[in-house]
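tokens incoming
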């Protein structure tokens, strides 16, 4: 699978040195695309000070989020937080929520860790690894108030569609981790992928559409949504707007089965 692109150019990569293909951190490395870049000395220093408290790598250990955050609060997972521009902004705007960002590539995470330290953001924790692995092994069923997936890589070539993150199996996995009434919020700038996402979401029996793109009535849902549905505009999205790309928002709620 690929992670979502918070502020990440779509550039194919191979496994970084020291991380062989097939390792747990890069289980399906050819399906990831990432920002190239190095960690600055200042970011590395911030990482060493802050990561041990707010970050973990994927494992088989279920998360005790109350202990990790030091409080009980509604939990939101962002899949593919990239460099964390949207993650940090939403965390600051929503102090009543605890937010877990999932990302594979350390340079992006390092930028976010540095911002978290600099701005004293207390309600963000980070997991480094494959989001499917994290959801399967670390996140409890019926525990999430929200899941956000902003600008996942569309893999536009037909032969690569199998690499797309949002497939029926992933939708079912997300639905199983959401609480009844919880929300999945997806945004994409790729029209074909938007159609694909809408189709696989419509097939998930635990989801009901909450906006026009998912066949729902937004007026009936927006005021009662358990998470905020406004997104900060990142550099990636600004570029999409300048090139004339249409941003499609897809929002589902989990039914109380």
């Amino acid at each position: 699978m690929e992670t979502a692109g918070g502020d990440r150019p779509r550039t194919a990569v191979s496994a970084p040195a020291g991380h062989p293909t097939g390792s747990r951190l890069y289980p399906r490395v050819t399906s990831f695309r990432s920002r190239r870049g190095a960690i600055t000395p200042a970011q590395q220093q911030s990482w060493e000070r802050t990561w041990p408290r707010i970050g973990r790598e994927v494992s088989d250990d279920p998360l005790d989020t109350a202990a990790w955050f030091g409080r009980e609060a509604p939990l939101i997972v962002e899949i593919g937080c990239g460099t964390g521009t949207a993650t940090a902004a939403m965390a600051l705007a929503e102090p009543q929520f605890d937010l877990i960002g999932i990302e594979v590539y350390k340079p992006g995470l390092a930028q976010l860790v540095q911002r978290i330290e600099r701005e004293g953001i207390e309600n963000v924790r980070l997991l480094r690894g494959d989001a499917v692995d994290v959801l399967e092994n670390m996140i409890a069923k019926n525990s999430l108030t929200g899941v956000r997936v902003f600008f996942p890589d569309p893999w536009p070539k037909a032969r690569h569609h199998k690499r797309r993150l949002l497939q029926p199996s992933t939708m079912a996995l997300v639905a199983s981790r959401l609480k009844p009434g919880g929300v999945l919020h997806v945004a994409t700038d790729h029209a074909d992928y938007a159609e694909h996402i809408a189709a696989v979401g419509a097939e998930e029996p635990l989801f009901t559409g909450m906006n026009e793109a998912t066949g729902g009535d937004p007026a009936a849902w927006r005021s009662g949504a358990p998470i905020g549905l406004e997104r900060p505009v990142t550099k990636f999205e600004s570029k999409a707007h300048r090139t004339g790309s249409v941003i499609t928002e897809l929002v589902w709620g989990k039914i109380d089965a």
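note: Residues 1 and 164 are 6 Å apart (CA to CA).
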